Amino acid sequence: MDLDGDGVLSSGDAYHVVISVHIPDDGETVLDRVTVSGGNANGSSAINVNGVDFMSNCGGGICNQNNSSPVLANIIVSGNGANYGGGMYSYSSSPALTNVTISGNSAIRGGGMFNYGDASPTLTNVTVSGNSASSSGGGIYNSRNSLPNIRNSIIRGNKAENSFNNVGNDNSTPVYTYSLIEGSTGNWASFGTDGGNNMDADPLFVSPVAASSAPTAAGDYRLQSGSPAINTGDNTLLPADVATDLDGNPRIVDGTVDMGAYEYQTPTGNDVVEMLRATSLRAWTQNGILYISGVADGATVRVYNVTGTLVWQGVAVGDASATLSMTVASPGRGIYIVTDGVTTVKTVY
Predict the structure, then answer these.
(1) Run of H or E residues at 189
(2) Percent of all residues in the chain with a pLDDT value above 70, rounded to a whole number
(3) What is d(CA 276, CA 82) in angstroms, rounded to the nearest whole number?
(4) Which tens digits make up the pLDDT trace of 24-73?
(5) Which residue, 72, 163, 234, 282, shows the most beta carbons closer than 10 Å to its own?
(6) So where are the chain's domains?
(7) DSSP string spanning 294-322?
(8) 272: helix, coil or strand?
(9) What is the CA radius of gyration of the chain?
(10) Alpha-carbon distance 284 to 347, whole Å?
């Protein structure tokens, strides 16, 4: 952590913010609702914890050593640095991560995470973005028979100077299921095993930060309306005791869990009214039909009533002058909120 208070990673900071050694895989050791930031694992000597010696150059944020399997839930790991595993390093360990954002970390290898020596972490609803590596594995680097299990997660927008921007593997084979993995299309041989229902698309983060800015704690990795990560996860992959997301909001909205650490929350009437502003998006009613225009080609348009209930949605086909229409006889007369994920307007029928 930033022990010297200078606001940057320096020799005056702690090598590691969190260290776990010999934590049994029993679900009893839990790190929950914290932010891990400011670790700077750039040492050249060994340290000893619980009788185990390991180098001080790995795992600036979290360092898991020697069969350590903590539960890491609802945490943000950002703004850390290391030689190996800026955000997290796991050696022969199997931590379980749920509702975790790993962003804005930097390292030589494994800017966000480095898994080494039969490490088998499980990542469920984890977002890995905006991390950088001066060599390989900007997001995650896996080495020596490491087998991460990645589910309902997003790996996007990481950068490595030499190779493997998002995920790098050395004799390791991660398995991905119901996840958004940048660069994976047509390239699964490099990434690992396609366990099914994965995608390669822009998740539409609210305010992502470029990996070149790492180390940094900046960035907003919540999802915007229209994100392909909304309602595309698998509910059965969530741990049974998980009911909320990283923000503490309901983890499942509209019946299906989202990918990533944050669940998109359907706007309420008050939320969307506050979002109203001048826009080319228009909505009006005539003869029982709600008309919508000024929508970009391919944009998803959603219509809510004043209680925040989704009553209709559709995808625009054509140019910005395209007009979508819906019959409002079923929803009934009233005030409707129309949004294309960028701008929002209100209409009355």
Answers:
(1) helix 188-191
(2) 78
(3) 44
(4) 999 899 999 999 999 999 999 999 998 999 999 999 999 999 999 999 99
(5) 72
(6) 18-257, 269-348
(7) ---TT-EEEEEETTS-EEEEEE--SSTT-
(8) helix
(9) 22
(10) 6
